[in-house]
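Chapter review: from sequence to fold.
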Amino acid sequence: MGKEAGVRYLSPEREKCFPLLSHLNYRCTSDETPVYNCIAYAAGDDSIWWEPEQYDDFPTYWPDDAIKDHSLKALVSVFRTLGYRVCKSGDLEPGYEKVALYIKDNGQYGHAARQEADGSWVSKLGDWEDIRHATAQAVQTTAEPVGGPEYGKVAKYMKRKRKAT
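The token string follows.
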């Protein structure tokens, strides 16, 4: 990835919220939308916001068998309902689809990203754009930036067999 003509990037204000992003390691892949969030996107769902409780006036979804709070354990339980299991790293493994789960300093989950078949990662940035980034760590944030999200650091990786296409 590098700066290319015709490739879209976050606005400079949004890009500042992610100190590890640069035009060399990401690009936007969608317009912004409040319909779905990072958890939904990592789960492969771009139709509804995934949250353990109602979020504003938007409809939300949370798997029935998942823990209903904002802990990392709850987020792990969400992806377990989808057939994922905890694994050691985010290294590319042929035949497997991986997710990275992030934890904030306060102990709550902060973000989820999904690894693509080519080893790159994709994230939905809250109600902002979707992006493709080179590493799971590229979207880590350690303190809530002004006007931006706090995602924390990668705390767990999970994997499941990649579905045949």
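Two observations follow directly from the output. Helices lie at 12-15, 38-42, 72-81. The chain has a mean pLDDT of 91.
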